[in-house]
Amino acid sequence: TGLKGLFTHVLRDRAWPYCLAVGEFIASLLEKGGDGKLKLPLSTSPEIHANHLDAFLTPNSNYDLSLIYALFAALIEMAQALGDTASQTRWQDIFDHLDEVAVEIHANGSPGALKLSRMKFFRNLTVTFLI
Predict the structure, then answer these.
(1) Torsion sign, CA atoms 76, 105, 57, 54
(2) pLDDT tens column, 35-93
(3) Is 114 helix (H, G, I), strand (E, B) or coil?
(4) CB atoms < 10 A from the CB of 10, how many?
(5) Contact 105, 111 (CB under 8 A)
(6) Rounded to an integer, what distance in angstroms lies between the CA atom of residue 115 and that of residue 63?
(7) Sign of torsion, CA 58 64 70 75?
(8) For residues 58 and 66, is the Cβ–Cβ distance under 8 A?
C-alpha cells in the first residue's frame, strides 16, 4: 500500500503494457547482422537533412540506437521490479546483442567523434533545423 503500491499499480497496469507493446514491435524489426549484432534494416536520424532520403542510414543511426537502448533498458528494469524473470531475461538478451554506438576510433584506439552511424561521421554533415 502507499506510494510503493501506487508505483506498482501504475507500473503493472499502465507503463509495462505500453512499453512492452513498443518493445515487441521494435524487436520484430531487428535483424541479426553478419557480426551477430541486432540492427534495424533502415534507420534515420531526423535532425539531419530535414528528414529527406539522405537522413536514412544503414545499419543503425546512433539516434535510433540510443532510443532502442533506453527502451530495452527500461523493459529490463520494469520486468525486474515486477518479478518477471522470464521477461527480464528476454529483454536482457536482446539488449546484449544490440550494435554498439558508432564512434570514430583514433589510431591509438581511443574513441573520437560521434558518428551518425557506422557509415557516416557526424562532423562531416550539415545539420538542418526548421525554425
Answers:
(1) positive
(2) 999 999 888 876 666 667 777 777 788 888 889 999 999 999 999 999 999 999 999 99
(3) strand
(4) 11
(5) yes
(6) 10
(7) negative
(8) no
Q: Cα separation of 101 and 67, whole Å?
A: 11
Q: Is residue 31 within 8 Å of 38, Cβ to Cβ?
A: yes
DSSP codes, 77-104: HHHHHHT-HHHHHHHHHHHHTBPPPPEE
| Long-range Cβ contact pairs of 120-126 (< 8 A, separation 24 or more) | 120/57, 125/48, 125/49, 126/48
Distance CA(117)–CA(15), nearest Å, equals 30
Closest CA to 65 of 108, 28, 26, 10: 26
- Whole-prediction pTM: 0.76
